[in-house]
Amino acid sequence: MDSKRQQKMASLLQQELAAVLQRDLPHLFGGGLAPSISMVKVTPDLGQARVYLSLLLGNDANERLEIIKDNAKEIRHALAKRIRKTARVVPELIFFHDDSAAYAAHMDQVLGTLHIPEAPKEDSSDDDKPARPRLFNNE
């Protein structure tokens, strides 16, 4: 379980990294959409941050992730400029591809193709209901 310090730092990093990728460094993506940051996990010593990126659009997710990993130093420097008054140390950024949204879409498609028959309808007459069990002798 993360401490409050870790949670605050993770939240700050997620917001500021999104701003860095969208506003400060859009040239990294060649005019395309910047990836969205789905989650940030920070180590207890705040030295490393694991950044999970959602690379939904396009089939070149691995190439885009490699571009981001290659430019991690530049991203960290731009992040440092944004959070220099808030954080004492800017953690090392480690980027991962988060494909949970694509997996959820795939599972939705699979579940949509299943043929599930409707449950048989039961009559709601009071005569068929079993008698209420007696809890005490004097009922």
UniProtKB/TrEMBL annotation:
Main location: cytoplasm
Disordered, as annotated region: 118-139
Keywords: Cytoplasm, Ribosome biogenesis
Biased composition (Basic and acidic residues): 118-131
Tree of life domain: Bacteria
Annotated InterPro entries: KH_dom-like_a/b (IPR015946), RbfA (IPR000238), RbfA_dom_sf (IPR023799)
UniProt-annotated location(s): Cytoplasm
A Pfam family recorded for this sequence: RBFA
Similarity section: Belongs to the RbfA family.
HAMAP family according to UniProt: RbfA
Function: One of several proteins that assist in the late maturation steps of the functional core of the 30S ribosomal subunit. Associates with free 30S ribosomal subunits (but not with 30S subunits that are part of 70S ribosomes or polysomes). Required for efficient processing of 16S rRNA. May interact with the 5'-terminal helix region of 16S rRNA.
Subunit field text: Monomer. Binds 30S ribosomal subunits, but not 50S ribosomal subunits or 70S ribosomes.
Protein name, as recorded: Ribosome-binding factor A
Gene that encodes it: rbfA
